[in-house]
Design a protein that fits this description.
By secondary structure, the protein is mainly alpha-helical. It has eight helices and no strands.
Length: about 200
């Protein structure tokens, strides 16, 4: 049924696209590998048909299986399979080949709507993975810019401001250096006397 449906919806009926759209054949970048795969499949199938290799190629793994007499005769199985194929093709032709197919798909059941939305996996992935991942990434970026970069930037500013303060002490005058040294000596003497007392 589904293969017939695909055939009838592809090759029969009126076009179901807008005028500005123009469906084209796939480029050779896609068709050539498909042709190579098809030729390889047919060749491998033909090779496996030689001497019944297709029916015995898994015997080294699964072991030989003795086939018994089928409960239903083979002719009945083949005939019923063929009848089912014909019925499926006829149903697909009646629904998709003979009847006009609407441009917009009908609403359908709950399962149909879920299947059209890929069983809502995009919404679940966005809710469980994408949005929490975005929030985590934003939090990490904020922490990096404010904490890590902020600490490095703050340390740089501290070094620059202390360097600026020390630069003001270096005036180039001997009297300033002598006054600084005298103040240091006074502080050291005061500390030594305070410790002894």
């Amino acid at each position: 049924f589904y293969m017939s449906r695909m055939f009838f919806m592809t090759f029969s009926g009126e076009p179901r696209w807008a005028e500005e759209q123009n469906p084209k054949e796939s480029p050779s970048l896609m068709t050539v590998p498909m042709i190579i795969l098809a030729v390889g499949s047919v060749a491998l199938g033909g090779l496996l048909m030689i001497n019944g290799a297709f029916t015995t190629w898994l015997e080294p793994i699964t072991g030989a299986v003795e086939a018994g007499d089928p409960v239903i005769p083979v002719a009945v199985i083949m005939a019923s399979s063929l009848v089912l194929v014909i019925i499926g093709a006829w149903l697909a032709w009646r629904q998709y080949g003979a009847a006009p197919v609407p441009v917009t798909a009908p609403a359908g059941s709950v399962l149909t709507r879920a299947a059209r939305q890929d069983l809502y996996q995009d919404q679940v992935n966005e809710a469980l993975l994408m949005h929490p991942g975005q929030y985590l990434t934003r939090a990490l970026v904020y922490a990096d810019s404010s904490l890590v970069d902020g600490a490095a930037t703050g340390l740089g500013r501290l070094v620059a401001s202390s360097g600026e303060a020390l630069r003001r002490l270096q005036t180039g005058f001997v009297r300033s250096y002598a006054a600084t040294m005298f103040a240091g000596v006074v502080i050291i003497v005061a500390v030594v006397l305070a410790v002894r007392v």
